[in-house]
Write a structure and sequence with these properties.
The structure is a single chain. The chain has 140 residues and is α/β, with parallel strands linked by helices. It has a domain of 90 residues: Nucleotidyltransferase, domain 5 (2-Layer Sandwich). It is built from 3 helices and 7 strands. A 5-stranded mixed sheet has the order 4-3-2-5-6. A two-stranded parallel ribbon has the order 1-7. Strand 2 and strand 3 form a beta hairpin. The termini are far apart.
């Protein structure tokens, strides 16, 4: 009884490269950057010099928020649009009627008089909104 041994062919490199996972990762990163870019640009459109605090505070999960900014000249901004104090009252009243009003983020220039920040706080309180955040810069 004779046995024949056949030599198996050597391993050949695969001529195809499966790049499906890399394409998925690329599209995922593209979507993340498309969402993050407008949020970054929103905060850079108004020239403000915010107060500086220590960076020891805890970071919480971000909640939906409405930005109210006051620049060094006393101009009011609703988001990134310039507005008057009367229009700010109307916008706040509309926001207060929503079922779950967002956090009101107030950014004010460092050189601004304290009374102008208090006037914005008063307007927010008058319409019954109680979730308020005063934004500052973290010291570096």
């Amino acid at each position: 009884m004779a046995r024949t041994f056949k030599r198996q062919r050597g391993l050949h490199p695969v001529a195809e490269l499966n790049i499906t996972n890399m394409v998925d990762l690329g599209f995922t990163l593209l979507i993340i950057f498309m969402i993050a870019t407008p949020l970054i640009q929103q905060n850079q459109s108004i020239p403000l010099d915010l107060p500086v605090v220590d960076g020891t505070t805890q970071q919480k999960k971000p909640e939906p928020a409405q930005l109210i900014a006051v620049d060094r000249n006393g101009n009011y901004y609703w988001g990134d649009r310039r507005t008057s104090l009367a229009q700010l009252r109307v916008n706040l009243a509309t926001l207060a009627e929503s079922p779950k009003p967002p956090v009101i983020r107030i950014e004010a220039d460092f050189t601004l008089q304290y009374q102008q920040v208090v006037s914005v706080l008063d307007e927010v309180k008058k319409v019954g909104l109680s979730r308020i955040s005063l934004d500052t810069q973290v010291s570096k």
